[in-house]
Amino acid sequence: MVGIKVGRDHGRYLELLAAFGEQMLVCSPHEETWLENMTSHGQRVYMSSAAPYLYQTPYWQPMREYTRLALAGEPAKAAEVAATLDPVRAVAARWLQGKPRRIDNIASIKAWAGLVGMSGGPVRPPLTSLTAAERAGLAADLAATGLC
Q: Looking at the structure, do residues 10 and 78 belong to the same domain, yes or no?
């Protein structure tokens, strides 16, 4: 084994990093801790998360920019750029982490992708797509952030 993605809370990431970080790559897929993980814990790989394509547009790429700044040794500037994602993180907390439908968040991810201009499409059974009301709520939340 050469690496592990820790999809649990940040505490678990730190625990596994301390235990195995010298022997293998330990990474977290959580955007909200990505800057800290780069600047304080040496993480250099971000993988297995929808954030890079859901949280940005072709014309507004704060995650890309704050990553570039952090890796260039400019953590204060990186933090300023990362803070611009706070409204988007709030939408993600509601629609992706909050799982308002008590099912896997795939339906919300696909709807979000479609609303920001990507090919989202319907989910495969047994999952169900967002209802029209849910999709309208997500669209309103995303519009308030300027993503669509």
A: yes
User: Which SS3 state, helix, strand or coil, does residue 27 take?
Assistant: strand
Instruction: Indicate if the pLDDT at residue 99 is higher than 80.
Output: no
- Position of tokens 């750029």? 81
Residues 79 and 124 grouped into a single domain: no
- Residue 117: domain span: 87-145
Whether 43 and 70 share a structural domain: yes
Task: Give the Cα-Cα-Cα angle 139, 86, 142 (nearest 5 degrees).
Answer: 5
pTM of the model: 0.88
Q: Please say if the pLDDT value at position 14 is more than 80.
A: yes
Q: Is the dihedral of CA 50, 55, 61, 67 positive or negative?
A: negative
Same-domain pairing of 26 and 77? yes
pLDDT, tens digit, 9 for 90 and up, residues 62-72: 999 999 999 99
Give 148's contacts (C-beta < 8 A, 6+ positions apart). 115, 116, 117, 139, 142
